[in-house]
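chain below, 439 aa
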Amino acid sequence: MKYPNIKTKLPGPLSAKAIEADKTYVSPSYTRAYPLVVKEGKGLWVKDLDNNTFLDFTSGIATCSTGHCHLEVVQAIKKQSEKLLHMSGTDFYYVPQINLAKKLVSLIPGGNGKKVFFTNSGAEAIEAAFKLARYNSGRKLNIAFFGAFHGRTMGALSLTSSKIVQKRHFYPFVPEVIHIPYAYCYRCSYNLSYPKCDMECIHWIKDSLFRGIIPPEEVAAIFIEPIQGEGGYIVPPLEFHQKLIDIAEKYNILYVADEIQSGMGRTGKMFAIEHFDVIPDIITLAKGIASGMPLGAMIARSYIMDWESGSHASTFGGNPISCQAALATIQLLEEGLMENAKIQGERLVKGLKELQGKHECIGDIRGIGLMVGVELVKDRETKERAVELCDKIIMSAFHKGLLLLKCGENVIRFCPALTVCKEEIDTCLSIFEDALKNR
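prediction:
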C-alpha cells in the first residue's frame, strides 16, 4: 500500500452494525477513540469490515512491534500450535518457555544472574514485581510518579497516576504508595527550566520527601517508566535516572523499570533504560514482546527473585505459542528492526519539527526511536493544553485513513510498527499535516 483507501462514510454499514452489537454485548468500560472495526492487517495497513484501508501508526498500542501478521511470526505460531497449545508453565516444564527466559536474560542490561517470571500482560508483570519487591525487601512503602501508568488491576492501579477515570470508584487501593513528580521538563512541577534547574526533582526527594514525609529505609521499590507512556511520551533528562538510581542504591531500594510500552526495540535499543546508562533491579515487559500475542514478563536479579515455590504463579503466563512468537519477534528486532526504529524515528521527528514551524498548536515534540509524542497547546507561551483540538485532529486523521491515538490529555502518540518504511513515515506526515490544516 502507498496511501489509505477510504471507500465509504466512516463507519461503513458493516462496521456500524458490528459496533451496535458491541454496545449490546461488550463492557462499556473499553475506550474506543473512533469507530474502527478491524477485519485484517498486514504490516502497517489494516482493513475494516467495509474494506476501507488505513495506515496504522498505533500498532495495537505499541504492541504489534513487527507489524500486523509478520510472516515469520505467523509461521512460528503455526508451527508451535501443531505441537502444544498449553501445559501451564506453573506446574510443568516445556522448552519454549525455558528458551525465551534464557534469551531475555541474555538481553537484559547488567548481564546474566537474572530470572524470569512470565505473565499474560503488562499489568500482571507489574503485579508480580509489586509482590516480589515486598517479599524480597520486607518493606511496605513504594514510590511511583505522577503521570505514571502501570496497569488497571488493583496493585498496578495503586501505582498508576495517569487519569482520574481509571481510579474513580475503585478506592481503597494497596496502601503506602507515594506519588512524586516525574521529570516532565516541558511542564516542570517546580516552574524551573532544564538544565538550570540542577535537577530539582531529584533534590526534592532527598531534601523533602526523605526528610519529612517517608523514611527511605522503609521503601521497598521505586516503580518508574524509563519514558513515560500514557502520561504523554515524556523523555526525562539523562541525569534523572542516573541520580535517581543513586538514591535507590544508597537506601537499598529496588529500582523497577516498567518497559511495557518502551521496551522491545521501540526506541532503537532493546530497552529504553539503556539510553540512560543505568541498570535496574527489575524490568517488566509486555506489549511488543510477542508481536501481538498475549505475553508479559518480569525479570529480576536472581538474588532478588528469592520467593518460595507457590508464592506466585500464573496458569497461562508463558504460553508456548506466545513464547515462540516472542522468540521470532526478538530475532527480527536483532536482525534489523531496532536499527530501523532508530532511522525512521529520526525521519519522523524531523518531519514533525518542520510541521511545528508551521503550526502554533504544536507546543512540544519529544521521543526516542518510534516512541514519539506531539503535545498540542492553545498558546505556546501559556502552554494551555489543547484537549479538544487533540481529539479533533485524531478524528480528522481517522477519516483520512491514518490511525493515531493520544496519551495524556493533549498529546498525540506516534508508535508505528518497527517495520515502518520511509514512504509510510512520509504518508503519515502528509495526512497529519492535512488534519492540522483542516481541523
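The chain has a mean pLDDT of 97. DSSP finds eleven helices and 15 strands in the chain.
thats it, cya
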